[in-house]
Specification:
This protein is mostly helical. Helices cover 30% and strands 6% of the residues. It has a two-stranded parallel sheet with strand order 1-2.
Length: 145
């Protein structure tokens, strides 16, 4: 069944003790809720199995990373007495996914400059030099050809 279709479903715990996920939700709580539907009164098995099917390409790697980040962010809310875990998001996978998506649609990627690539602006010219202005200080008029 899909992740959302089992909402409010009861009785599945009488016939099943394994959840197989063929799709990943944006929130790990959705997965926990599905497993919780199996771990109810009436379950005959002492262990509930959860199997997550995923690929090494496509959207699965960034989704798995996102779920890990969300889980680590919510730990302090779910269990405030637990220690703090510092994690850093790895953006390379999501960037690779975006590049692949755009390349399949023949959309050219224009790389942006990084702070190391930015050049310092040219200094202003010394005071008193001719900058193409007329003597009155205004911009000179264009002459017709």
């Amino acid at each position: 069944m899909s992740l959302g279709s089992g909402a409010g479903l009861n009785g599945i715990q009488d016939v099943c003790s394994t959840a197989v996920f063929g799709e990943l939700a944006w929130s790990g709580e959705v997965h926990r809720q599905v497993v919780g539907r199996l771990d109810r009164d009436g379950q005959r098995e002492s262990i509930i199995d959860a199997v997550y099917l995923h690929a090494d390409a496509g959207s699965d790697p960034p989704m798995i990373e996102l779920l890990g980040i969300k889980a680590s962010q919510s730990k302090g809310i779910v269990d405030p007495d637990q220690g703090v875990t510092v994690t850093r998001a790895e953006t390379g996978r999501i960037q690779a996914l975006a590049r692949d998506f755009l390349a399949r649609r023949n959309i050219r990627i224009v790389e942006t400059a990084t702070s190391d690539d930015v050049l310092a602006p040219e200094p202003p010219p010394p005071v008193g030099e001719d900058h193409g202005e007329d003597e009155g200080g205004g911009i000179g008029e264009l002459e017709a050809a």
